[in-house]
Amino acid sequence: MTLPHSIITVDVFWLPLGHKDGIWDVCACRWEPRLLASAGADSRVIVWDLSAGLPILLYSGHKGSVNSVRFHPTLPFILTASGDRTAHISRTLDSSGLPTALNAASAVSDSPGARHHSHVLSNSIPSEAAAHSSAGGAPRRPSVSGTTAIRPVIEVRGHSSAVTTAEWLVRDQLVTCSSSGLARLVAVANGEPQDVFSWQAHENAICNVTAHPTQALFITSSKDGFFKLWDARSVRVATAFDAHSGPLATAIFSPNNGDVVVSSGENNLCVWETRMAKAPLVSVSSSHSGNRVAFSPSGLQFAVPRDDGGTRVYSIKGEVAFDLDTRHVDVIRSLSPSHGVQQAAASLPEPLSTTVDRPLRLMCASAWTADERFIFSGGWACTVFGWKHML
Questions:
Q1: Are 383 and 11 spatial neighbours (Cβ–Cβ below 8 Å)?
Q2: pLDDT of residue 201
Q3: How high is the pLDDT of residue 126?
Q4: pLDDT given for residue 187 in this prediction
Q5: What number of CA atoms fall less than 13 Å from residue 219's CA on the CB side?
Q6: In angstroms, rounded to a whole number, what is the distance separating the alpha carbons of residues 87 and 165?
Q7: Is 354 exposed, middle or buried (0-12, 13-18, 19+ CB in 10 A)?
Q8: How distant is the alpha carbon of residue 142 from its chain centre?
Q9: Contact 27, 69 (CB under 8 A)
Q10: Which of 48, 88, 309, 328 is 20 to 30 Å from 377 by CA-CA measure?
Q11: Per-residue pLDDT, 190
Q12: How many other β-carbons are positioned within 10 Å of the β-carbon of residue 204?
């Protein structure tokens, strides 16, 4: 069942072009709903102030593509995974008034092997007109040459191949995963990374890892067609799901009951109940492959960024709620209505017309804000798109 589009109002906008290459991941912040982070193939992580629609922090400590970014659930830190074979913990702006240092888990040191910079853009944020437009109406990248501040960083090493994804776990732990299928459980309680356990989790590259919202569990999804449920306490696989024959872009927990949504290269989506590994509860076929899926905070819907450049929203029952498209946009508006900045649709990349153009449209990841009013997706167009909708 598809909800009638006549009762859905969608307002689309895009953030300034802060990335120089494709965007691999986007993440919304739980403890400060104004913050959104994007990670790109240009080795950058940008933290955005959604109330202004502008970048406020640039992290450029990685030497390779940044493949994933995750905000800490409660504290002002981000975890990034990179093709340079490392994962980093870096401090973000403390916009919510939380403590500026972790007690035990965040007493991080700026060691010689981890001298990375976080650039605060407070002194060089362009005017709203300059940020969203330039001569001829085309958007331009905001300046990132603001005041430089040295931020404490933990650098997690130990992988011999690209770190594809990383996730925060409970008890001051995190898990990092690589393109070789290796996973590493790391503790950061003393301000230095301590390798708890390393193991070969999959036979092929791990595409994504996500943590259970309340329990010491996490799920890995891989190009080998498996997604596996792991117990973080014993580091043992609780369940291995092998009902897919193609690569799995993501497997993510519902924030409600622990059900899992899986997106595969077979152009289908499945909803699994983790206690039943024989068959999915729901299976949905799609015309295009989905990538890193994002649940709404309520757990009632999930957004699927797709290879065709669109983002489709489903109910937990697998029903299509609505499509969020960037190919037929009449007006691009800034996030804050007070800006009053408008852009003609001509400033957007042209709709797909050939196979060669398709990669420029691919959407890699999505994120929801805490109030569920906004959905964001980023991909190979080097741009973070956002949609505001009300049913």
A1: no
A2: 96
A3: 28
A4: 92
A5: 24
A6: 9
A7: exposed
A8: 21
A9: yes
A10: 88
A11: 73
A12: 14
Candidate CATH numbers 2.130.10.10, 3.90.79.10, 3.40.1350.10, 2.30.42.10; the one for domain 5-390: 2.130.10.10
So what's the pLDDT on residue 356?
Answer: 33
Chain centre distance of CA 362? 14
- How many residues are there in the chain? 391
Q: Counting beta carbons within 10 angstroms of the beta carbon of residue 336, is it exposed (0 to 12), middle (13 to 18) or buried (19 or more)? A: middle
Grouping H, G, I as helix, E, B as strand and the rest as coil, residue 350 is: coil
Break the chain into its structural domains and give their ranges.
5-390
pTM: 0.79
* 353 beta partners: none
* C-alpha to C-alpha distance for 39 and 166, rounded to whole angstroms: 13
Q: 11: closest CA among 350, 327, 344, 390?
A: 390
Tokens of 60: 């450029």
Residue ranges in 124-217 assigned as alpha helix (H):
128-132
Q: Tokens standing for 145?
A: 């040459």
Q: Which helix (H) or strand (E) holds 218?
A: strand 217-222
10-residue mean pLDDT profile of the chain (391 residues): values are 43 78 94 92 91 86 95 91 95 50 30 35 28 34 38 84 95 92 91 88 96 93 93 89 82 89 86 81 86 93 91 92 68 33 28 37 91 90 83 52
Q: Which amino acid is at 349?
A: P
Residue 222 has a pLDDT of 94
Question: What is the reported pLDDT for 360?
Answer: 58
Which tokens is 79 given?
Answer: 């975890």
Q: What are phi and psi of 383, to 5 degrees?
A: -130, 145
Say if strands 363-368 and 374-379 run parallel, antiparallel, or are unpaired. antiparallel
Please, how many CA atoms are within 13 Å of residue 29, restricted to the half-sphere of its CB?
24
Q: Which amino acid is at 216?
A: A
| Cβ-contact 208, 294 below 8 angstroms | no
